[in-house]
Automatic annotation (TrEMBL):
GO terms for molecular function: DNA binding. The keyword DNA-binding applies. It comes from Leptothrix cholodnii (strain ATCC 51168 / LMG 8142 / SP-6). SUPFAM superfamilies: C-terminal effector domain of the bipartite response regulators, CheY-like. Residues 149-214 form the HTH luxR-type domain. The modification 4-aspartylphosphate is found at residue 54. GO terms for biological process: phosphorelay signal transduction system; regulation of DNA-templated transcription. Residues 2-119 form the Response regulatory domain. Pfam families: GerE, Response_reg. This is Two component transcriptional regulator, LuxR family.
Amino acid sequence: MKALLVDDHSLFREGLTMLMAQRFPAVELFDVGDLNDAEAVLGTEPGIELILLDLGLPDSQGLDSLQRLRSVVPEVPIVVMSADERPETILAAIDQGAAGFIPKTARIGAIESALRVVLDGGIFLPQGIYRSIAPPLADGPEVDEAQAALMQSLGLTPRQLDVLRLMALGQSNKQISRALSVAESTIKTHVAVVFRRLDVTSRSQVMVAAARMGLRFER
């Protein structure tokens, strides 16, 4: 697998490159310090399957970087890695099509765990984002009834609700297929239905939408 790291901090690039080499030796990581160099690599190096993007670059700031790269390689998942972990920044990145968000302020073990999720095709979002956008959790048995009524209102079949639950936990189609013992092609069909019901266009948006609705799933 080939991945591209776009970050203007050389020490961070060196540290992440070392981590990837030690923990994920099957990943060939390219690293650059600005967006122009990133576009050059994408134009000359075929087969990039994942982009790790810092939002603060010398030649592009904020979500403009994400939009530019998505216009170049719309099919490649882009995971934002940023020290700005304000909920509004994370949600804006997801709304603009980011496939996940990893805080650069996290401990190295947490970054490794997050990378393991995204390299396996899953979606990673900081736990704090759920606390910031989810409705307050009520007490008592009425919680389960409210959850059941909410899920029923989505108009999904029990199997599609299973798929929604696992998507909301960040799992990839392959992982969901294994967990439910269902063909991956069938999972893709269920995912498309979930997208339509939640009015979203990406898996990361599913996670945010579920949290906003107050749906809570156990890992």
